[in-house]
Predict the structure.
Amino acid sequence: MSYKIAVCSGKGGTGKTTVAVNLFSTIQTKWTKNVQLIDCDVEEPNDLLFFKDAKVINRSIVNQLVPVIDESQCTFCRKCEEYCEFNAISIIPSVKYASVDPNMCHSCGACLHACRFGAIQEQQHPIGELTNYSRGNQTDILEGSLKIGSPMQTKIIKELKVNASDESDILIYDAPPGTSCPVVETVSVADFVILVTEPTPFGLYDLRLTVSLMKEMRKDFGIVVNKAGLGDREVYAYIKEEDIELLAEIPFNREYAGQYAQGKLLSDIPPLIEQEYLKLAIYLKNRMHHD
Amino acid sequence: MIEITILSGKGGTGKTGITAAFASLAKNTVFADIDVDAPDLHLILKPEIKEENQFLGARIATINRQVCTNCGLCKKECRFDAIHYRAEGGLEINPFECEGCRLCERICPVQAISSEHSTNNHWYVSNTRFGTMLHAKMGPGEENSGKLVTTVRKNAKEKAREQNADFLLNDGPPGVGCSAIASLTGVDKVILVTEPSKSGFHDAVRLIELVQKFNIALYAVINKCDINSEITKQMESFFLTQGIQLLGKIPFDEDMVNAIVNQKSIIEYRPDSEIAGKIEEMWNKVTEPIKELK
């Protein structure tokens, strides 16, 4: 069984990807080669931008099942429309019109049960793709990418979880921002969650929301403060008050931010920052043996 | 009334800081925070809540084990693997995995399953020093943030019409998924706030593709433009090829963060700064042609 770590944040742009990519690299160079990074921010997957040496080894389309109504069999009774909780089906009996909006459909299958006339069948509808990348190790990086215009991000995250390598010692899930269903889907399998925040009122407010989600999901978690030195000290007071483990503090460094911008996260890491990632990896190693 | 949504693709590019700055410049405008997953605009606008409304979220099903015969039909048919056998016997539904499709409820041979709307979501109409603001609070882990976005927008539009407002300004969510889609369908203009990093650029390209699918007028702001001037140049020429009007570029300045710490917009915090001037120019560019038409 792999040890599963999710990297999360309520607020976007606090540094989830930065932390996930650096942690992956630190673990791979200092601890075990057998680690996989899984980019679950399928709306905006970015992990690959930081690995220029990664090669595609496999790419597959993710489909969802969408109903198709055969108008020659349909009696326009509207039962399927009534069963559809997602308003994806419109039936207009007066003009014998039946249609399904694939962008609203959740593929739950309720309409199939509603139809007594065998007028509904399902078809595959593409919603995105999964790509396996290698940097010399078969399991290296797995990325999900949502097709533009599709709202089915959660389904792609589900597929990522199924396709993650069981053989890995460690799986790192880079989560999407926010606090709703795609985050829940990503975090649900995690043994431990790293919450990345920044020391600003926005960072703190969204951290509170994320902490309450973690508590509701009964997840073990700790906090990484990124861009330390900017903003104020309120986030530290909160961490202390809530008795949450402060796992690492990554100082804000203007030059390193410029390097990040160019996709060069993993070269010339300032020693102070490198040390924090090492500390984080050691914490996780101890935690894993303890769990 | 012109409805404008601010989006970014990538999170943390400065959407909310810039929305707050626009808010302090805008006249006769209603504001809506439609990043319902992680709303932050209220931290600057400090709304005084006038009206609280409940939003009925997705349904969540539960099994009445007194009635359930453990036939397992619901577990077999659930496409979300939300139904499990408990160690101590009997079936249960994991509320975090349930999508609220009600399939199990409809097919249960003994009617042991029922579902209720989640009541954990609220939306508000508030007063702020800049005008009326609509915002929402979502329960942790909720489905359907897209529907909540739609509800907030619909009511914000009504308020804007009631008040005969010139603009409705929406602070949008990151990403390109269901919340982002819900935040842009039918708006008049989208302002893309991006930053010159490979990720910022990559995510902006995806957002642009989405906005173009909906045929909406798109404007761009490059925030923190001096973090990487090479990528800023690449972005500028990309916007040109896409016919996207660049409203302006804002250099990185810690005062943007300091303004937030002081619960102020940059316009209030440093009215005479270079950034404040640039943001004012941008707001005028977006709004002036509209005023002229009137």
Q: What stands out?
A: Chain A touches chain B through 60 residues (CB under 8 Å).
